[in-house]
Write a structure and sequence with these properties.
Structural class of chain B: alpha+beta
Order of helices and strands of chain B: HEEEEHHEH
Helix content of chain B: 55-70%
Number of helices of chain B: 4
Number of helices of chain A: 3
Strand content of chain A: 25-35%
InterPro entries (chain B): PMP-22/EMP/MP20-like, PMP22/EMP/MP20/Claudin, PMP22_EMP_MP20
Largest interface: A-B, 13 and 12 residues
Largest sheet of chain B: 5 strands, antiparallel
Low-confidence stretches of chain B: none
Membrane topology (chain B): Multi-pass membrane protein
Low-confidence stretches of chain A: 189-202
Oligomer: heterodimer
Radius of gyration of chain B: 18 Å
Distance between the termini of chain B: 10 Å
Mean pLDDT of chain B: 89
Family (chain B): Belongs to the PMP-22/EMP/MP20 family.
Subcellular location (chain B): Membrane
Helix content of chain A: 25-40%
Number of strands of chain A: 12
Distance between the termini of chain A: 61 Å
Largest sheet of chain A: 6 strands, mixed
Strand order of the largest sheet of chain A: 2-12-10-5-6-7
Organism (chain B): Oncorhynchus kisutch
Radius of gyration of chain A: 31 Å
Strand order of the largest sheet of chain B: 4-3-2-1-5
Chain lengths: 202, 156
């Protein structure tokens, strides 16, 4: 009965993806960077198919407040094509590895005008149905501490201290229990005989 | 004896609920259509409720951490109280419970003080909300509860 159920589920799982394959693209959610620094925007995808030779990666950029996006990078037919006319001319570099499904780009010498949303779209023929993923770039003069970092570290430090105190307490109790024999023997005058005395007692 | 025990337990539960509500409710500063801190900054308009994360500043994160820690320590002291009820020798005092309860009250006090001092003023009609008041109310209750646990002795 169980084997029939297992076989049926394997067959069903084998059939269903053929009809509803979709490529899933992963980028970050938000990236923070300092003015003048470089940043690597990563993009990778998951697909049920093997990575084909016709895999394409495509990055587009929409500045904050603008309505339209412009295309700044395209990888197709095995060759990357970087922006040579737009805002990232000479500042964009392809550092991904399409064979490993990595379509990351490197932006150099960031400026405040680079604030905006970067969208990565990847296609792995015949697996082309998917939703593009966006990462927001925020350029700061001084990177602020992210929300929750201090909160988490204070809570972690106090709980860690609590744990440490509990461990030390039990350790002390354990050590004192072993030294009890030494203490009672030293009453007779010889401190050095501590361990022998305890062994004799045992 | 049973009555005292029940009263102490009910007090402890009330304190736990007050601390929890104070930490969770987003109403440390209210004013008109806006309510802020401890976690979100929300604005009620005709179109609905618009929230964004509370500011990232260090002091708000410290207040968040202290309030969460106070809730945790109050919970720990409740657990220890239950434990010590059954494992304590006759005539023993509830020291562990008392220590955690007093620490919880200190954390609430520190959190409320930091918030009071560091809150930016100069905003029109910004008054202290109910969550802030609950925090200040639960601090003396928690301290008193901790002291009661120091004085309480286990019988039979």
């Amino acid at each position: 009965m169980l084997t029939i159920l297992a076989l049926a589920s394997v067959i069903l799982l084998g059939i269903v993806p053929q009809q509803s394959e979709a490529i899933v693209i992963y980028t970050g959610w938000e990236r923070h960077a300092l003015v003048g620094s470089d940043i690597r925007l990563s993009c990778s995808f998951f697909s049920w198919r093997w990575t084909s030779d016709d895999v394409t990666f495509s990055w587009s950029y929409r500045p904050d407040g603008a309505r339209d996006a412009i295309s700044v990078f395209h990888y197709t037919g095995g060759a990357p094509y970087v922006d040579n006319k737009g805002p990232f001319r000479d500042r964009l570099e392809f550092v991904g590895n399409p064979g490993r499904r990595d379509g990351s780009i490197l932006l150099k010498n960031l400026d405040y005008g680079d604030n905006g949303t970067f969208t990565c779209d990847a296609k792995n023929p015949p697996d082309i149905v998917g939703r593009a993923s966006s990462v927001r770039l925020l350029v700061f003069e001084k990177v602020p501490i992210q929300a929750g970092v201090i909160t988490g570290s204070i809570i972690g430090a106090v709980l860690g201290l609590l744990l440490l105190i509990v461990v030390i307490y039990y350790l002390m109790r354990f050590l004192v229990a072993r030294r009890v024999f030494n203490l009672s023997v030293s009453k007779h005058g010889k401190k050095g005989k501590g361990k022998e005395g305890s062994q004799q007692r045992q | 004896m049973l009555l005292i025990l029940l009263a102490v337990l009910i007090l402890h539960l009330i304190i736990l609920v007050l601390l929890f509500v104070s930490t969770i409710a987003n109403a440390w500063t209210v004013g008109g259509t806006k309510n802020t801190d401890l976690w979100y900054s929300c604005l009620t308009t005709k179109g609905g409720y618009h929230c964004s994360s509370a500011s990232n500043e260090d002091w708000i994160q410290a207040v968040q951490a202290l309030m969460v820690l106070s809730v945790l320590f109050c919970l720990f002291s409740l657990v220890f109280f239950m434990c010590q009820l059954f494992t304590l020798v006759k005539g023993g005092r509830f020291f562990f419970t008392a220590v955690f309860q007093i620490l919880a009250s200190l954390f609430v006090m520190c959190g409320a003080i930091i918030y009071t001092v560091m809150r930016p003023d100069g905003e029109e009609d910004a008054a202290f909300g109910f969550a802030y008041i609950l925090a200040w109310v639960s601090f003396p209750l928690c301290l008193v509860s901790g002291l009661i646990y120091i004085v309480l002795r286990k019988r039979e």
